[in-house]
Write a structure and sequence with these properties.
The complex is a heterodimer of chains A (about 290) and B (about 230).
Chain A lengths: L2 H32 L6 H19 L2 H22 L9 H23 L15 E4 L3 E4 H23 L1 H18 L4 H27 L5 H16 L4 H21 L4 H15 L12
Antiparallel strand pairs in A: 1-2
Chain B lengths: L5 E10 L2 E11 L4 E5 L6 H9 L6 E6 L2 E2 L5 H6 L2 E4 L11 H6 L9 H7 L16 H13 L5 E5 L7 H16 L3 E5 L3 H7 L2 E6 L2 E7 H6 L1 H8 L2
Parallel strand pairs in B: 3-8, 3-9, 6-7, 7-8
Antiparallel strand pairs in B: 1-2, 1-4, 4-5, 9-10
Classes of the chains: A mainly alpha (about 290), B alpha/beta (about 230).
Bound molecules: adenosine-5'-diphosphate and magnesium ion (MG).
Adenosine-5'-diphosphate (ADP) binds next to strand 2 and helix 1 of chain B.
Chain lengths: ~290, ~230
């Protein structure tokens, strides 16, 4: 592998990881704070991608699709929390799996009905239709650079919000003791609604940004869900920092695996997960004892 | 007659099928200090949880300043001006001490500065995580956090349990100060003497029923019977 190929794969791996982080961060927060194992989280990614395609066809571009699609998905997240997820807060994991898996089927049906079952490509914005050359053979697409920077900005913004604002403080407090927060006069239900809808919108945004890179196809939600669970487990359940580290690790391992060990590439991320869990059963940034 | 700050009538509270409170009546006037005594498992914590809506009573009524709050979510009841210092203190372990103070603060005369004047030893610990504080520091922080919501009624479930004598004295003196300043308190503790010195009125719970209610003089007049009710 030449140095430039190595660099390109590394950059691609980071980009895959950053997109994965947008999905996994919502999944880990919803599990860590709301205590709900949400199988439908991947569906938000899938719906985001389909919405990006559908809106881009009608509005003339991905940027408009994102600007319109993100508020739609915020609203969808709010509605899903209000009418479905909020019924799960005091339930066991089996009820959570049953209901949220039901939502997966529902969203798949919604996708079939609204958008059809065809595979679609979404063009990257024309302004980003150029490349940077890396060495003699490789080029790095401007859209990929843009996506990486956008995701990185979102990750930094999330960090600022979680560590530096009262909303973030309450999210962290709610993760350890929601009842106490409620008893101090904080509307924890509303906090959960807001958090869930932000998580939904982030997953959908990842789907929208990924659409020009991966194509839009039925079942894309399930595959991202599985990988996101791997990320969450590697990082430590409920930890945003962990989701970031896990997403980077998985993104890079997956990208290099596809190049170096194509025959077993689909097993690489699970091997990484197993290796991490052997040394840290609670994940990289997880709490040692179970909640 | 003054409208009670908090008034509960005929509270019956259950955990699943087990019937824990059997008709609790309780009233706290503005600025009054009421104490809640009773052996372990008699229903003190459950009474407090019922008042705040954390474990809503199945029968009975809670009013704050005459307004019925039974059935409201706990945060709405707390916003009426009630703050809880729970059993076990309930410090948020992953938040710093300063964040614990501000996470649920509502505007009023209690500011972080005022709380730190009350508990100067917290000043050096502001940037430590809640989980890194000692039991005494956690209790001070829990009181400070409650005061930061600028409440009219402070509920302390276990004021001094498990704390060193010096910290205990400090907490009793803070409670005296709150009383002098006109903040109502509902205090649970194992130590009878400071409760009798502090409280305007006292309740003794036995198996989810009120076995005694009266002021300090009445309590002392029945001291022997009351001590039997409290003996473990
Ligand atoms: N979460 C719970 N589930 C079931 N029973 C409980 C629960 N909490 C308390 N109890 C029972 O309710 C009774 C009153 O408990 P509690 O209010 O905690 O008493 P106290 O605070 O006076 O020690 C006890 O018999 C206790 O075992
Ligand atoms: Mg108790």
């Amino acid at each position: 592998m030449t140095l430039s190929l190595f660099a390109l794969q590394l950059l691609n791996g980071i980009e895959v990881g950053l997109l994965l982080f947008l999905v996994a961060s919502g999944l880990t927060l919803v599990f860590g704070v709301l205590g709900v194992l949400n199988f439908a989280h991947g569906s938000f990614y899938m719906l985001g991608a389909y919405l990006a395609w559908w809106l881009a066809e009608r509005t003339g571009g991905l940027i408009w699709a994102v600007l319109l699609g993100v508020p739609v998905m915020l609203a969808l997240g709010w509605a899903v929390e209000r009418f479905a997820i909020s019924r799960l807060y005091r339930r066991d994991h089996l009820s959570q799996v049953l209901l949220t898996y039901g939502l997966v089927l529902l969203f798949n049906e919604l996708q079939r009905t609204l958008f059809g079952n065809d595979v679609h490509g979404v063009p990257a914005p024309r302004a980003l239709d150029w490349t940077v050359s890396l060495g003699e053979m490789q080029t790095w697409g401007a859209y990929r650079i843009f996506t990486s920077i956008a995701c990185l900005c979102i990750a930094i913004g999330m960090r600022q919000i979680i560590l530096g604002t009262r909303f973030g403080m309450r999210v962290r407090a709610g993760a350890s003791n929601g009842e106490m927060l409620e008893a101090l006069g904080v509307d924890v239900r509303r906090l959960f609604s807001v958090l869930f809808s932000i998580g939904t919108a982030l997953a959908a945004l990842a789907g929208m940004l990924a659409a020009p890179l991966t194509t839009v196809f039925p079942g894309m939600g399930e595959s991202v869900l599985v990988v996101s669970f791997v990320v969450v487990v590697i990082g430590g359940i409920g930890s945003i920092k962990g989701a970031f580290a896990g997403a980077m690790l998985v993104g890079i391992a997956d990208t290099f695996g596809k190049v170096l060990l194509p025959s077993i590439s689909s097993a690489i991320v699970y091997a990484v997960m197993a290796a991490v869990l052997i040394f840290r059963p609670q994940g990289l940034f997880g709490e040692a004892q179970a909640r | 007659m003054t409208v009670p700050l908090l008034e509960a009538t005929g509270l019956h509270t259950y955990y699943g099928a087990s019937h824990v409170l059997h008709g609790i009546d309780l009233r706290i006037l503005p600025g009054e200090c009421v104490t809640l005594m009773g052996r372990n498992g008699m229903g003190k914590t459950t009474t407090i949880r019922s008042l705040l809506g954390l474990t809503p009573p199945r029968a009975g009524e809670v009013r704050v300043r005459g307004k019925i709050v039974t059935g409201l979510p706990p945060h709405r009841i707390a916003q009426e001006g009630i703050a809880l210092i729970p059993e076990g203190r309930g410090i948020f372990p992953t938040l710093t001490a300063r964040e614990n103070l501000t996470v649920a603060a509502r505007p009023g005369r209690w500011t972080p500065e005022a709380v730190l004047d009350l508990f100067p030893s917290l000043r050096a610990r502001l940037h430590h995580l809640g989980s890194q504080l000692s039991g005494g520091e956690q209790q001070m922080l829990s009181i400070g956090r409650a005061l930061m919501t600028n409440p009219e009624l402070v509920i302390l479930d276990g004021a001094t349990e498990g704390l060193a004598p010096l910290v205990r004295r400090q907490i009793w003196s803070v409670l005296r100060r709150l009383r002098a300043e006109g903040t109502a308190t509902l205090v649970v503790d194992k130590e009878v003497r400071p409760l009798l010195e502090l409280g305007d009125r006292h309740l003794i719970l036995v198996k989810g029923r009120i076995a005694f209610a009266g002021d300090s003089q009445e309590w002392r007049a029945r001291a022997e019977e009351n001590l039997v009710l409290l003996r473990a």
